[in-house]
Design brief:
Two copies of one chain form a homodimer. Chain A has about 325 residues and is an alpha/beta fold. Chain A contains 13 helices and ten strands.
C-alpha cells in the first residue's frame, strides 16, 4: 500500500486506465447516460445521469473488483479472494469471483440485511458474519486472509480499485462530450478517487465535485482541513456512504483534483430518490441519489452548465422506498 | 384515411422513416438499450431492453405525436390540435404542442386519474372530460375538431403516427445489431404497426411478435382470424392496452409482417414489472412490461436467441406498485 500522503501519479496514467478499460470491455456494462428534462428544469442546468445503477450487480463496484481480480496471478486466483463489506462491494466481489471461477469469502456484519446476505450467497460467495463495526470485520478478514492465503480485495484501499472505477469517466466523456461539471457520490473514496485520477489524465479542465450526506461529512471536513479527519458517527440512510474517514489511497488523489465536497440533507436524498423514480423512471438507492440531490438543491456553482450526476447504485429494498 | 383492407407500402418506404427520424433527431431521446443478466437467465435467451420508458413524457407516444404535428401546415398549427386519450398519448400530444407553440385540446374520461389529468395540464393542454368510453370521447373530440378547426392527432389511426413510432426500430437495429427477435406491446397498434412497417423496410428477416394481455386479446384473435375482430371487455391492469379492436390503419401492416401475438396473464405482467424494478432498476408501467413478461414466461419460440423486449412506457402510479 502506498504510504499515507505520498502519491505517484504515474500509477494513474492514461495507459493504466486503458488497460482497465480493455479488461472490462464486454464484461462490465457500458451503462447509458440519460437525460431528463424535468430534472434539468428543477436543477436549472443541463443535467444528464450516468446510470451505474444499471451496472452488473447493481452498482459501479463491479468495475474495480473485476479489474483487480484480473491482475492476480494464477496461483493467487487459485487460492481465492476475501473482502469485508455489507453492501454492493460484497456482491461485486462475489460476482467477479464467480466469473473467474475463484473462491470468494465475504465477512458481513452480524446484523446484515437478509436480502444482501442472500444476494451475495446467490453469486456463490462464502459468507461469514462477524461483529457490527467495519473494524471487527476487517480484523476477522485479515486473519482469514493470512490463514487461507486469500487475497484481500478492498473496497477502495488499492490503486487498482480506483483504476477500475475510473473507467466510468472514460465512458462519460464519450457519451456526454460537452460535460463541464461532474457530481460523484463519495463514501470511502474508490469511485471519487478513480474519477478524479481519470479526470486528471483525460480532461484536466473538468470540474469534479464529491457529494456526501451532511450527517456523514468526513470527506468535506477532510478536504477543508487538507488532511484526513475522522467523524464519530454516520447514521445516514445512504448506507453506502457511512464511512467515518476518507480512504488513505484515494484521499491525496481527490484532494489534488476535486473542486469541493457538497453536503446534502437526508430529506434532499429522499426527494432526489423519489424524483428519479417518478420522473426519470430509474431505481436508485439512497447512496446513489446524493449526486442528483446536489444538482437539485445545491446548484449555485453550476447553474446553466452541462452537468452529469453519477447514479452509483440501485440496490435498495423496494419495500422501503415508500416509507 | 386509407380504406380498411387496403395498404400502400410506399407510405412506409425507408425514405419516409428517414424523414421522421430526421425530424425527431435531437428532439426525442435516443433511449438506451440495456442488458440485464438476471432477466436473461430467467428468460433463457440473450435479452436486451429498449427503454422507451425513458422517452420524453415517459413513453414512445411522443415520437408519433411530434412527428405528425411537424407535418401540419402553418395554418393548421396556428389553429391547434385535439386528441382523446386518458393516458400517455394525451401527455405526448400536450408536450409536442407546447414545443410547437400550438393550442392542444385533450378529451379525457370523466373518471380519469388525477395524476394523469395534472400531468397533461402541466404541459399546457386544455383538458375536457367527457364520458367513460373511448367512443364518447372520440365523438366529442370530432365535434370540437370541426367547430374549432382543430386537427385530430389520433393515437394510432394515421400513417404518420406509425412512421414516428417506427423510428424506435431504426435505433434498435443500430444499438443491438444482432437482434433476431423483437417483442412489442400492442394496444391500438401504433407502435407495433410502426415497428412492423420499419422492419419490412430495414430488416425483413427480423422476427417481430406483438404482446398483449390474455384478457384483452383483440389483436391475437384478429391476427388468428385474418381480419379485425372485436372483444367485449379488456379489464386488464395494463391500462394502455385496453383496446377492444385493432386499429384499421395498423392492422393490415401488422398482419403482413408479424410472426404472431403472444398472450400474457395479469400475474405475469405484475411479476415482470417487479423483476424490472428489482433487477433491471427500471420503472415500467404494466403496459410497458408485457413484452418482458413474454420473454420470461413464453420463451419457447426464441430460447437461446438474441431478443429485444420493448419497454413502451413508465408512467405508473408509484403508490400502486406494491399493492
Amino acid at each position: 500500500m502506498q504510504p499515507s500522503g505520498t502519491l505517484d501519479w504515474n500509477v494513474y496514467r492514461r495507459g493504466a486506465f486503458e488497460e482497465a478499460r480493455h479488461v472490462l470491455e464486454g464484461v462490465a456494462h457500458r451503462t447509458p447516460v440519460v437525460q431528463c428534462r424535468t430534472l434539468s428544469e428543477h436543477a436549472g442546468c443541463d443535467l444528464s445521469l450516468k446510470c451505474e445503477n444499471l451496472q452488473r450487480a447493481g452498482a459501479f463496484k463491479f468495475r474495480g473488483a473485476y479489474y483487480m481480480m484480473s491482475t492476480l496471478s494464477k496461483e493467487e486466483r487459485k487460492r481465492g479472494v476475501i473482502t469485508y463489506s455489507s453492501g454492493n462491494h460484497a456482491q461485486a466481489v462475489a460476482l467477479a469471483a464467480r466469473m473467474f471461477d475463484t473462491r470468494a469469502v465475504v465477512v458481513m456484519p452480524d446484523d446484515a440485511v437478509g436480502v444482501k446476505l442472500a444476494a451475495t450467497r446467490t453469486y456463490g460467495a462464502e459468507v461469514l458474519q462477524q461483529g457490527r463495526t467495519p473494524q471487527e470485520r476487517k480484523a476477522r478478514a485479515e486473519v482469514l486472509a493470512r490463514e487461507g492465503g486469500l487475497t484481500m480485495v478492498p473496497g477502495y484501499e488499492d490503486p487498482r480499485i480506483l483504476l477500475g472505477q475510473g473507467t466510468t469517466l472514460i465512458e462519460i466523456l464519450a457519451q456526454a462530450p460537452k460535460v463541464e461539471v461532474l457530481l460523484v457520490p463519495v463514501g470511502g473514496g474508490g469511485l471519487l478517487g478513480g474519477i478524479c485520477a481519470a479526470a486528471r489524465a483525460y480532461r484536466p479542465g473538468l470540474t469534479v465535485y464529491g457529494v456526501e450526506p451532511e450527517i456523514a461529512d468526513d470527506w468535506a471536513r477532510s478536504i477543508e482541513a487538507g488532511n484526513i479527519v475522522s467523524i464519530e458517527s454516520a447514521d445516514t440512510i445512504a448506507d453506502g456512504l457511512r464511512s467515518l474517514e476518507p480512504g488513505e489511497i484515494p484521499f491525496p488523489v481527490v484532494r489534488e483534483v476535486v473542486q469541493g465536497i457538497i453536503r446534502v440533507s437526508e430529506n434532499e436524498i429522499r426527494e432526489a430518490m423519489h424524483l428519479l423514480l417518478s420522473r426519470a423512471k430509474l431505481v436508485v438507492e439512497p447512496s446513489g441519489a446524493v449526486a442528483t440531490a446536489a444538482a437539485l438543491f445545491h446548484n449555485e456553482p453550476f447553474r446553466g452548465r452541462q452537468v452529469v450526476a453519477l447514479l452509483s447504485g440501485g440496490n435498495v429494498d423496494l419495500g422501503k422506498l415508500f416509507e
